[in-house]
Amino acid sequence: GFLRDLCEVLLYILLPPGDFQNKIMRYFVREILSRGILLPLINQLSDPDYINQYVIWMIRDSNCNYEAFMNIIKLSDNIGELEAVKDKASEELQYLRSLDTAGDDINTIKNQINSLLYVIKVCDSRIQRLQSGKEIDTVKLAANFGKLCTVPLDHILVDNVALQFFMDYMQQTGGQAHLFFWMTVEGYRVTAQQQLEVLQSRQKDGKHQTNQTKGLLRAAAFGVYEQYLSEKASPRVNIDDNLVAKLAETLNHEDPTPEIFDDIQRKVYELMLRDERFYPSFKQNVLYVRMLAELDMLKDPSFRGSDDGEGESFNGSPTGSINLSLDDLSNVPSDDTVQLHAYISDTGVCNDHGKTYALYAITVHRRNANSEEMWKTYRRYSDFHDFHMRITEQFENLANILKLPGKKTFNNMDREFLEKRKKDLNAYLQLLLNPEVMKASPALAHYVYDFLENKAYSKGKGDFARKMDTFVNPLRNSMRNVSNAVKSIPDSLAEGMTKMSDNMGKMSERLGQDIKQSFFKVPPLMQKTYSDPDHCRVAAPIDDNVDDNIPLRVMLLLMDEVFDLKERNQWLRRNIKNLLQQLIRATYGDTINRKIVDHVDWMTSPEQVADAVKRFRDAFWPNGILAETVPRRDKAIRMRTRVAGKTKLLEVMPDELKHIIGAETTRKGILRVFEMFQHSQLNKRMVYVFLERFLETLFPQNKFPELFNKLHSRSKQMQRYKQRLHSTQAPSLQKSLLVSHIRLLMHL
């Protein structure tokens, strides 16, 4: 009924008056539009299965990720999804077992069968756990168990995710001044080094502002001293008074340097590391367990590892953590019939067309119930590197376990160096072939067998791509650490640091202006072009003030809602704000506006409109015959589509987001968004809201908001709601009158 009324209004607006007065034609067109076009379209757009298929289609270019798929299976609380995946895996398993193969294909099929068996057992275990109601909180269980990975303090201080949990803990224990001092000194050191380097380059060019720059640096250093170390500081960093006095003497009589706080910072670090109130107690706190979960390092409590009393290390040693879930450990497929062992037996230097490189001979043993094989294969270090990149891309948890020995540019053919690398690569192989690692990722066996086979190794990436990855990844990490250090002064200390920040800001601004004057005096090669005012209607320059910046406010609210960040600390929220500001700056401006306008122009071009009409005709009347109604898809297919949609969303989860708010929070937030679209009634409500807002924007002169209120008021649901509202308001009105009457009598 609502759509009929709406279509009649649209016909009144769009049709000539004479045609609109023709009731037969008007009613006929109204029924076609409302019942034949709009209602089926709204139902389709509201169908969760259609939305899931569209999500998969939009992310169709991303590679299928085994780890993301297994995470979805282990986290699923929908028995229908698990049963659909299990049935499909059983079907594939039956097909593979029916194949008649020989030779090398047997090993590939065995690996596929093992992977399918593993998926089936994980599904069975998850179904049993859900049906029995014995859902277990892994974080609480791990906290009670107490045997966790050990993340060193120096790693915590340079990792965004880990640092926010340590910061929360230090604030609980009253030790926040020590942590904030350490972070502030890191920021001071980086900034001071940059300014002194600029100053030195300017002095070479004959420009002198030495006293002014050093004065600003001294003011900044005094700001740090006053904030944390002086008698007036509150809270004050408790450190050796002799060191503080020595620092005060240096500040009064010498020029400040980037290293002026190093001695005290080193003492503060030792205090946080050794004092039982801080890092040692943090490792026993529930915040530490949550930190491990966000870093994807929460080891399953059932996997006890060694009992030598030493915690599992963070540096990829054989005792490193293995990221397993509760379902992994109770249901790993135990194919003990095939055992694989490998070790590097020898190393040598080869010369091929003038290129010299090291070659490692790997002796491989493979045993099964009936036979035993042994062969040798030869691999270069670049082969190991390419193989390592392949498996860590496919199996994300291996990046925290496996650490490949680093490269060396010079003297890399030295005999002593080759022996050391041989030893390190052997340790890498033994950890890789560890049964627990292989069981945790059954599909890994295929990659390992391919790498160890006696054949030429085919690299997954070209030499140039691998060299770029080797160069860019450490550089990216270093830049991220420097950026975090500069941004890491917490909001709670903003008032005390105002003077220092102003001085540093003035110094940076002044130096920046001088640099521009000295380096950019040449006129530009291209003059600024005229900007089409049409492009400015799509987007405009923005202000960084959150209160005035509507896009930033909306995105912050969205992040709060999706990732449940309301209870997180202000330091994390400021990092998110910085990320969103960069994103908005990148998407606002003339370049993006022009792309939007050009894309709309392309979509509305005669060729595209004709193509859209042709597709519409072919969809509804293929070969001139009216298309039949598409049958509703089978429930099992719809359930598997849900799993595929969630897997695809996890695959495209950006690493930058995980580095800021944590892997677990990001995963939960993305799955929360997915679940939001699995309710057809809510989807339909959203489609109607979009439709109404679209018409309000398209016809601003026709008072559609008032019209929608009138159309809604005809609804039987609205009429019943008003009746209930009136019936509840009447007694409350009588009650309020009675209360006021009693008060008047009491006053008299």
UniProtKB/TrEMBL annotation:
InterPro entries: Phox_assoc (IPR003114), PX_dom (IPR001683), PX_dom_sf (IPR036871), RGS (IPR016137), RGS_sf (IPR036305), RGS_subdomain_2 (IPR044926), SNX13_PX (IPR037437), SNX13_RGS (IPR037896). Residues 1-63 form the PXA domain. Residues 338-459 form the PX domain. CDD domains: PX_SNX13, RGS_SNX13. It comes from the Eukaryota. Keywords: Endosome, Lipid-binding, Membrane, Protein transport, Signal transduction inhibitor, Transport. SUPFAM superfamilies: PX domain (SSF64268), Regulator of G-protein signaling, RGS (SSF48097). It holds the Pfam family PXA. The keyword Nucleus does not apply. The keyword Protein transport applies. It is found in: Early endosome membrane; Endosome membrane. Residues 152-275 form the RGS domain. GO terms for biological process: negative regulation of signal transduction; protein transport. GO terms for cellular component: early endosome membrane. GO terms for molecular function: phosphatidylinositol binding. Transmembrane segments: none annotated. It is a peripheral membrane protein. Belongs to the sorting nexin family. This is Sorting nexin-13. It comes from Dryoscopus gambensis. The gene is Snx13.
